[in-house]
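Write out the bound-state structure for SN-glycerol-3-phosphate.
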Amino acid sequence: MKLPLILVNFKCYEEATGKNALKLAKICEEVAKKYNINISVAPQFTDLYQISKKVKIPVFSQHVDAVEKGAYTGHVSPLALKEIGVKGSLISHSEKKLSLKEIKECLEIMKRHKMVSIVCADSIIRGKEIAKFAPDLIAYEDPFLIGSGQAISRVKPDSVKNFVESIEKINPRVKVLCGAGITSGEDVKKALELGTKGILVSSGVVKAKNPRKVLEDFAKAIS
Ligand code: G3P
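---
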């Protein structure tokens, strides 16, 4: 996975659903190309197929279940995502939390399918537990700052720095992203200064009047 990364989580926002999802994914692709930076998108399940076929930037799922194949009604398997060109998945976002046992099982299956795993953690204690399972990336997000417009990198810099250092001690191969409340290039710059390898963002881009402008601001902070 190329880093640093800006991962745009579309959640279930109307501005990023169906036709709007494709339009936003195209904007992400154009900005990534123009500034030569890594932007990935995480649309809803129902938009994954169309987007993974129509954009060249990496496409992630917002969630995946710890199931291989077989009788698992209503689940979404890593294999099914891989089949349609999805590169990897967020796992255990605070809005779709999994137990540590489920996370571990999910990672084992995803590794077998060579998919990129980004596990979310809401505390340093949980991050350290997750790091033992060796995901590709851990995204540190404070649930209280999600959607707040108050960037975790600026409101809780010490906490982000401690998170990065704690994970590095357990497994230096696991890279850290941070997210929650990020809306500007300054927020992104600060996140990178604190040792993260990128950011996870949603409302700051999806709900912006001009998502392209926000993404360009992020891009300038990175490049
Ligand atoms: O997954 C991204 C996230 O939870 C942060 O959301 O809206 O604060 O950028 P937001």
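---
Residues 9, 93, 141, 146-147, 179-182, 200-204 surround SN-glycerol-3-phosphate (CB under 6 Å).
The mean pLDDT is 97.
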